[in-house]
Each structure stands twice: as structure tokens, then as C-alpha cells.
Write a structure and sequence with these properties.
alpha+beta; three-stranded antiparallel sheet; 3 strands; about 35% helix; flat
Length: about 80
């Protein structure tokens, strides 16, 4: 359910600890970003980690990787 919501969103999505709608993830964080071809979202990548992870490093890496995958998928 949570990943399905992330697939519908644009850009980077961040869920930290108790902010997630799943109580099983209360001690973890999730950072995701979609990758796409044209205007069609075709996948999702992300990082699951502890609530005290290095967000300033992980967020740009997830964003950059999703953009790179999108670019590679749309390049002829």
C-alpha cells in the first residue's frame, strides 16, 4: 500500500519513523523516487534504513539515481 502511494507521487517521497502509515515501520525510514519513460511511471526505487540515517546524502542519491534510470530508459 505504501509503495503504491509512492508510485502515484512525483519526485522524492520521505517517510520517517512514526510518520509512515504502517506501524511496523515505526523504527525505520523510507526514501523513494519513481522512474519513468516520458510521462509514464514504470518503477520505483528507494532506500529503507534506520530513522537516524544520513538523509542529506541519501535523498540526493535516490533522486539522482531515479533521474538517471529515467534518462537511460528514454534514450534511443
Amino acid at each position: 500500500e505504501l509503495l503504491g502511494r509512492c508510485m502515484q507521487a512525483d519526485g522524492v517521497q520521505i517517510f520517517i519513523g512514526a510518520e509512515t502509515p504502517l506501524k511496523e515501520m515505526a523504527g525505520m525510514s523510507l526514501i523513494t523516487s519513481t522512474y519513468l519513460t516520458g510521462n509514464d511511471t514504470i518503477g520505483l526505487l528507494g532506500v529503507v534504513g534506520p530513522t537516524r540515517m544520513g538523509y542529506s546524502s541519501v535523498i540526493p542519491i535516490v533522486d539522482y539515481t531515479a533521474r538517471l534510470v529515467s534518462q537511460l530508459l528514454t534514450t534511443d
